[in-house]
Amino acid sequence: MLEEHGRVNLDEILEEVQGAASIDKAIDRIAAWATRSSRRGNWPLLILEYSRIAQPEDTFRKSQEKVLRAQWKALGKVLLQFDVMLDVKPEVLGALVFELTYAPAMSFVSKPTSGDLLRVALRGLFGAAR
C-alpha cells in the first residue's frame, strides 16, 4: 500500500519538476504540489506508526524503508540536475521534500503550509533565496 501511494506521489512530483525551466520554477511547482498533497490526508502515517509501535518483523520494516529511500533518491536526483555542484545526497534532498510535505501538522494547520516550508528550505539550498 505504501509503495503504491509513494509511486503515485513520486510520479506526480517528477512530472511537475521535469517540466520546469529553472530551479525557481521547480521550487514553486514543488511548493504547490506539497501544499495540495499535504491536505489530502496522511494515511501512510498509519503504516509508519504501525511499523514503529508494533515492531513487526524486520523484513516488513526493511521493505518499507527500501521503498521510501528509493522514492527519496529518485526525486533528489531530478532536483540535483538543476545544480550539479550542490553538496547534498539525492536521498537527503528527496527526503526533505517528502517529509516536509507529509509532516503530520501540515495536514491540518492553515499556516505555514508545507509549500511555505519547502520554499524556504529549497531556496536556501539552491541559493535562490530572494
- What is the helix tally? 6
N- to C-terminal distance: 39 Å
What is the CATH C level class, in words? Mainly Alpha
Domain module tally: 1
Beta-strand segment tally: 0
pLDDT < 50 stretches: none
Largest sheet: none
**What's the CATH architecture?**
Orthogonal Bundle
Radius of gyration: 15 Å
- Estimated share of beta-strand residues: under 5%
Order of helix and strand elements from N to C terminus: HHHHHH
What shape does the CA trace take? globular
- Report the average pLDDT across residues: 84
Helix content: over 70%
Kindly report the CATH topology.
Tetracycline Repressor, domain 2
Secondary-structure class:
mainly alpha
Features:
single chain; about 130 residues; mainly alpha; Tetracycline Repressor, domain 2; 6 helices; about 70% helix
Please describe what this structure looks like.
The chain is mostly helical and 130 residues long. The chain has a single domain, classed as Tetracycline Repressor, domain 2, CATH 1.10.357. The chain is 70% helix and 0% strand. It contains 6 helices and no strands. It has helices spanning 2-18, 23-38, 44-53, 58-80, 90-101, 114-126. α1 runs parallel beside α4 and α2 runs antiparallel to α6. It is globular and about 45 Å long.
